[in-house]
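Input sequence (310 aa), recorded before submission:
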Amino acid sequence: MKIFKIILMSIGLLAICALSIQAVQEGSKSEIQADPKVKAVGENYAIHALPMPENLNFAGESVPIENPDIYERMDKELLVNTYWQSNGMLLLKRANKYFPVIEPILKEYGVPDDFKYLAVIESGLTQAVSPAQAVGFWQILEGTGKDYKLEINDNVDERYHIEKSTRVACEYLKKSKEKFGTWTMAAAAYNAGNTGVLRQLERQDVSNYYDLLLGEETGRYVFRILALKEIISNPKKYGFYYNEDQLYKDIPTYKVKVDTAVTDFAAFAKDLKLNYKILKIHNPWLRDSFLNNKTKKTYYLDIPKKGYYK
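Predicted structure, token format:
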């Protein structure tokens, strides 16, 4: 009898719980129905397969999208970069700020404008440092920087200087183009190195980037550039909306000549009605709080014009 009573009590408790859950669910449904603004997640947001863009090219060189493996690799990069929305929006904002600095230098050197997207995938248009200690917008290694006459020491590292590092990248890319014959191969060589790419071309007996079997990073490299080119060039097509005033903007500056040692950049900045932080933001190539300058070299510091910082 005791067991029977316990069973009845258990059934009763289960019934009460079931009724309570049903009441909560019905209440939630009625609340949703009562408020037309509240919808299921799928009604507000959906993941779509993306149409393949027509006439894909890098620096005027066509992409053989008719090949199944090329189609899949391109499709992957479009999907990854379209649906990484926070990163995509940040890249769009930064591109508005930094492309006007990079574009005229590319043009000056005769390097196709598409290479500005190479800087996007290399660093996200930030002063990044890689695990291999490649530095800056163009991710230049110390040895390469010195080969191209950049100053790199404890006080100064011109790999962080956007204009100077862009010029080095242009020179490197032009040499690669002369060596390999196409801008697409020059882009791949920027990632894997001229020697590494040449070795694979000879080993596989091909001459085209799209015919090469490469490691994952270099194999994705040109497709990532193409994807970011497509998305940044057509943001609304890929679901990125913004107002112009929400984009980051370059702050106008003027040059201040420095041809002596500077013992304290904090005091130096104060004399210019700035603080240390703002001075370093506009001159990231200054790597310490002072400048030895034993050789009396002439440097030009970028100083923001009045009215842009409070």
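Checked by second reader. The first strand starts at residue 57 and ends at 58.
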